């Protein structure tokens, strides 16, 4: 009983001191809180400099995301797909004779699959279409000449291409290529010629690459289930190499990351002995028979900060991607092992007015510990 009384007296002194200290801090800092207002609990540091550093880091990550998105848009813009009728390369102003309205050449095609080539056009009222021709590099593989009424369509053999028997429809606007081979990678060009003279010509072109894709997705290794704040995480993301190489991207809690002072991303190439190199969608292509399998690895070194844990969980994802034809990822999660009793040092309250109250002091934390001990003694 004496111990209980002593604890109560000590608790009263601590609470009184804590109240006076909090009131003084609010007067000095001009912080206003509302009793009974509904607030939101968030994790953060009780050091303003640390908070500022975290905000600056988030701003830098957001700026990097915007730059990466711009780069991706620029890359996608060069995929030879014209959704607005303006062409992707060899862009020209309005043509008074014949105009390319829609031009589609896929940027990447998986080996052994099918692809469509589209060159939709508009012939002006006073003009007549003389011919539509498709080229792979400098080799012509298709032509449509309306004036040849008995045989307007003609197909020419080129390596890696096999056109569907229903070639181009009635007016040759869409071609369907089946069983694309590795040799099909090249620049594809659509050429339109108006009846002449002067036989005015307009054309569009774009690059297409045949891809050999891996059968399995990326694997993240080096995983340890739990980490503390200020520890370093070292992870490897490995995937069988593809042609062309896949892009490996790391995200932390859904945010794309790049190399900074707290994030280090290192590309690594590996080669190890295997029974052979196998890929999907490869019915007719020739693969290396050296018995070696090549893999691509990206290493992420991350210094764990408090803001990385959302609800006590940190999520890291590695995504392997190639254009719009391949995207697979591997996600791992980590839990925060920081002591829960001392986490109140990093806990603060957002008042109903949107202003941050003073983080709990050491005195307040001691009061919480005394309340716990008192509750434990009373239960006994």
TrEMBL record:
Residues 273-294 have a biased composition (Polar residues). Residues 53-79 have a biased composition (Acidic residues). It comes from the Eukaryota. InterPro entries: Ig-like_dom (IPR007110), Ig-like_dom_sf (IPR036179), Ig-like_fold (IPR013783). Keywords: Signal. The keyword Signal applies. Transmembrane segments: none annotated. Residues 96-209, 214-335 form the Ig-like domain. Residues 1-18 form the signal peptide. The keyword rRNA processing does not apply. Residues 26-93, 272-294 are annotated as: Disordered. This is Ig-like domain-containing protein.
């Amino acid at each position: 009983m004496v111990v209980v009384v002593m604890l109560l007296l000590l608790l009263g002194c601590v609470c009184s001191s804590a109240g006076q200290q909090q009131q003084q801090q609010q007067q000095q800092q001009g912080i206003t809180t509302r009793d009974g207002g509904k607030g939101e609990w968030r994790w953060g540091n009780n050091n303003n400099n640390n908070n500022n550093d975290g905000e600056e880091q988030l701003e830098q990550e957001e700026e990097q995301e915007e730059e990466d998105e711009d780069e991706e848009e620029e890359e996608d813009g060069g995929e030879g797909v014209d959704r607005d009728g303006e062409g992707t390369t060899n862009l020209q102003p309005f043509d008074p004779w014949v105009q390319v309205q829609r031009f589609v050449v896929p940027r990447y095609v998986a080996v052994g699959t099918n692809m469509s080539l589209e060159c939709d056009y508009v012939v002006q009222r006073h003009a007549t279409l003389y011919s539509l021709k498709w080229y792979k590099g400098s080799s012509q593989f298709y032509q449509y000449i309306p004036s040849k009424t008995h045989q307007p369509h003609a197909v020419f053999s080129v390596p890696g291409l096999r056109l569907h028997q229903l070639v181009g429809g009635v007016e040759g606007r869409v071609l369907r290529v089946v069983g694309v081979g590795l040799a099909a990678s090249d620049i594809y060009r659509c050429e339109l010629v108006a009846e002449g003279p002067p036989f005015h010509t307009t054309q569009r072109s774009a690059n297409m690459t045949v891809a050999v894709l891996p059968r399995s997705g990326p694997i993240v290794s080096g995983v340890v289930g739990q980490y503390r704040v200020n520890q370093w995480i070292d992870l490897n993301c490995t995937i069988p190499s593809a042609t062309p190489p896949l892009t490996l991207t790391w995200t932390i809690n859904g945010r794309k990351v790049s190399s900074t002072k707290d994030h280090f991303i290192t590309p690594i190439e590996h080669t190890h002995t295997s029974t052979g190199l196998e890929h999907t969608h490869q019915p007719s292509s020739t693969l290396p028979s050296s018995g070696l399998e090549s893999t691509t690895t990206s290493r992420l070194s991350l210094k764990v900060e408090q803001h990385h844990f959302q609800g006590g969980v940190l999520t890291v994802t590695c995504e392997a991607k190639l254009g719009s034809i391949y995207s697979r990822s591997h996600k791992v999660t980590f839990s925060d092992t920081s002591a829960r009793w001392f986490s109140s040092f990093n806990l603060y309250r957002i008042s109903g007015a949107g202003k941050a109250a003073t983080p709990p002091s050491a005195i307040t934390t001691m009061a919480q510990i005394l309340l716990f001990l008192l509750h434990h003694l009373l239960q006994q």
